[in-house]
Q: What sequence folds into this?
């Protein structure tokens, strides 16, 4: 069992908050990813869990035991660093076995565990090499093996793939996913890379400015972002966000902005204008000569191979559509798009919180609430 409970943990440096009242419950065997931009506090939070930094306030529990003030070596946790932190003068075998030697385990026990972990991570043929003779991906696996060798309660990983090239990152992501399934262990993984988060996590905790913006499955964060920050952070390219008003017209509600007129498919005979921040994901825009949701002129087309990103100036806004290639449009073309009303997101322009209808049964009043 390795269940982590983080209870209103904060970390300040002088008057500045690096982490502000973060609470998370990480289940045994879960692959939880701490995601967010640089400087959002995710690595600081991980270091506090590892015991490398002390919280200013709040408590950290592992399987119900308070470890807030416990020394790092007394926590049943293994840390994998971004830099791998391997000893260059030691062989792969001695690097892997180092945590067991530090705990004064017998030579026979160390040799057995090193061989077992090396087989799991396909390192058996490399045990006599030194780190300088290994590729980046091999060094990353050695760092993982060193963490695995003592069978920790949970693995803490601080951007372990950031030093790898794109192809190797993709392959190593797949290895980590398979490793997590084999071990059934708890993984807490820090990254700023949304692709890593979306492909690896069972749940994501998205942080911004030291606070948790939303916790949920990758699908929940992508399909129903709780805030405009979540909507704008996830997705490549990110969600199109633009100021608009929701108004009643011709018996229904519509989202109106400069160059944008989208039906919400909600019956309403009347209602005052409601200012919103509207959002549409690029892949939800569909070319349609008769479409009225978005009308504009193509500013640029990016070829991604199987897809094209079509950048469109619609009134005062520049929106992006992600379309199968060939999209059949060129720079300077006038285009029109349609969008399914279910794929239009609305946020409060002041707080950034997601807006929902007060009454879910038709006919619904033209009232939006956070």
A:
């Amino acid at each position: 069992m390795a269940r982590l409970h983080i209870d209103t943990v904060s970390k300040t440096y002088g008057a500045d908050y690096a982490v502000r009242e973060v609470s998370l419950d990480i289940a045994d065997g879960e692959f939880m990813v701490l995601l967010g931009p640089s400087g959002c506090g995710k690595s600081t939070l991980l270091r506090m869990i590892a015991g490398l930094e002390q919280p200013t306030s709040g408590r950290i529990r592992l399987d119900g035991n308070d470890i807030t003030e416990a020394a790092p070596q007394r926590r049943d946790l293994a840390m994998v660093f971004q830099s791998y932190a391997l000893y260059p003068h030691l062989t792969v075998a001695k690097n892997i076995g180092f945590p067991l030697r530090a705990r004064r385990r017998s030579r026979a026990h160390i040799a057995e565990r090193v061989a077992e972990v090396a087989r799991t991570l396909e390192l058996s043929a490399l045990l006599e090499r030194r780190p300088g003779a290994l590729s980046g991906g091999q060094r990353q696996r050695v760092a993982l093996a060193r963490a695995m060798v003592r069978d920790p309660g949970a693995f803490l990983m601080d951007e372990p793939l950031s030093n790898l090239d794109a192809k190797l990152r993709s392959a190593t992501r797949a290895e980590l996913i398979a490793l997590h399934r084999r071990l059934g262990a708890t993984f807490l993984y820090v990254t700023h890379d949304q692709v890593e988060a979306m492909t690896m996590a069972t749940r994501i905790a998205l942080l911004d400015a030291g606070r948790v913006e939303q916790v949920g499955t990758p699908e929940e964060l992508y399909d129903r972002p709780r805030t405009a920050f979540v909507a704008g952070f996830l997705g490549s390219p990110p969600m199109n966000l633009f100021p608009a008003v929701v108004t009643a017209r011709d018996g229904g509600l519509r989202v109106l902005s400069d160059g944008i007129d989208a039906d919400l498919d909600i019956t309403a005979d009347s209602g005052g204008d409601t200012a919103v921040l509207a959002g549409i994901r690029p892949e939800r825009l569909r070319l349609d000569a008769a479409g009225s949701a978005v009308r504009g002129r193509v500013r640029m087309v990016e070829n991604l191979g199987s897809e094209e990103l079509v950048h469109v100036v619609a009134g005062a806004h520049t929106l992006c559509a992600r379309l199968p290639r060939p999209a059949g449009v060129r720079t300077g073309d006038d285009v029109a798009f349609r969008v399914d009303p279910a794929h239009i997101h609305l946020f409060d322009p002041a707080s950034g919180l997601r807006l929902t209808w007060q009454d879910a049964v038709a006919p619904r009043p033209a009232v939006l609430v956070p």
In short: The domain at 240-369 is CATH 2.40.50.140 (OB fold (Dihydrolipoamide Acetyltransferase, E2P)). The first strand starts at residue 4 and ends at 13.
